[in-house]
Amino acid sequence: MEYYRLARSGQVPDGVVRRFFVQDDVEVAVSRWEGEVYVTTNYCTHLDCLLSSGKVIDDGLLCSCHNSVFDLETGEPITPPATKPIRVYPSKEENGEIFVGLEPDDLARERPMRRKTFEAKHQGS
Ligand code: FES
Predict the structure, then answer these.
(1) 12 backbone dihedrals φ, ψ, rounded to 5°
(2) Distance between CA atoms of 37 and 14, rounded to whole angstroms?
(3) In angstroms, rounded to a whole number, what is the distance separating the alpha carbons of residues 21 and 46?
(4) Which of 58, 68, 84, 106 could bridge 45 with an S-S bond, Cβ 3.0-4.6 Å?
(5) Are 101 and 3 in contact (CB under 8 A)?
């Protein structure tokens, strides 16, 4: 696993979730709660809504589409309708910067939105 820089610490204040990309290939949601930074996938396991459009609340990360809440440490859904966990990536904060830990396979994967766009363009061709 290798760590990649995501953002300056100040870009993710307490109680906020924001979207970032690693080398244009991996899309993540970076949340901060009570000073701790958490990095997760940016896609809800219910119907693929962007978690960065949601909110960080007391219990975890709230998806704005249908109000599922995910535990920020384990990724487990706390509130339905989602039943599957979201991926939680290793993260660290050093010298005012936020980093995410990725495996080589993570960088090879396409972002879900990019894949959908590709499939839509090539449907029926
Ligand atoms: S898409 Fe997130 S709860 Fe439905």
Answers:
(1) -125, 85
(2) 9
(3) 21
(4) 84
(5) yes
8 A C-beta contact, residue 63 and residue 54: yes
Ordered by where they begin, the domains of the chain are 2-122 (2.102.10.10)
pTM for this prediction: 0.86
Distance (Å, whole) CA 31 – CA 37:
6
Which string of DSSP letters, residue by residue, matches 75-125? --EEESS--SPPPEE-EEEETTEEEEEE-HHHHHSPPHHHHHHHHHHHTT-
Q: Which of 17, 40, 46 to mutate to test the pocket of ligand 1 (most atoms within 8 A of CB)?
A: 46
The residue assigned the tokens 């109680």 is 15
Measured in Å, residue 69 CA sits from the centre of ligand 1 at 9
- pLDDT tens digits along 3-12: 999 999 999 9
Mean pLDDT lowest among 15-29, 43-57, 80-94, 97-111: 97-111
- What the block records as the tokens of 120 is 């839509």
